[in-house]
Amino acid sequence: MWQRFPAGLRSWFGIELHPVTHTERLVSALGGFLGIFFILLASHAVLGDLEASLLIVGSMGASAVLLFAVPHGALSQPWAVIGGHSVSAVIGVACAAGITHPILAAALAVGLAIGAMHYLRCIHPPGGATALTAVIGGPAVHALGFNFLLAPVLLNVAIILVTAVSVNAFFAWRRYPAALMHRRKPEVETENKHRPEGGLSHSDLEFALREIDSVVDITEDDLSRIYDLAAQHSRRERLEHWQIRLHRCYSNGRYGEDWAIREVVDEAPSGDPEKDQVIYKVVAGKGRRKSGVCTRAEFAAWARYEVFQDDSSWQRRPPAAR
To answer: Which pTM does this prediction carry?
Structure first.
């Protein structure tokens, strides 16, 4: 459905087209249900009633989304969950006790919690809700004082972490925490484990993340794995020189301003692929209406796959139809 939306609208609204299976979606939903269910059961058993726990179950619901829908995200890892909720709870209680104006106290609690999570490297968005609850939760929460950190906050955190580890353990592709998916290896091996021939190293990816200078919800290991899989797929998908044919159109498979489609309009066949030349014109994307000449091997190195025009859009031609 989302593929039908214009690319510009998808970009503005931030609609990402990351395909996942129905199994993945169902497991995420089941995990979220079990996490909150066990939190409420344990709170009733330990506290005698649900009042204190219900005041923060909203933020734990947000944590459940991260732990079960995005279990390998950087914001979902154990330190992010424990540290994010804990430091936010402490800051929230301190603001509630030290600032009489509730609006100022609430806003300052959330702002300080975000700053503290940044410095402690435990950014966890639901922590903002924990800080806010400590201020606006009313007399029942205020009466707890700093005990609010122990129960319900850390009690709920422990329950949802145990549930996340247990539920995700049944599915090899989503073991939690992410470290169970990517065991740390010796430094030299780590440096080169995701380096395809002529490709990027792990340190290259670390440098890129630092240069972005913004929190990206993906671990370095997962980013390396994504790059490695993408590089392998790219090598498998490359066209051979003999697949470049006259009057056919090809795309470089890139996105944004670099995307382009070329049509082969003429050729000069030769027995040597290095001397076999083609003349092309750019029919869409970057450099539209321009023409060029190159060897067939160079064109194949540029092209990612063959395309055809269907009504007003370009479609990838299935391999069997080439």
So the answer is: 0.64
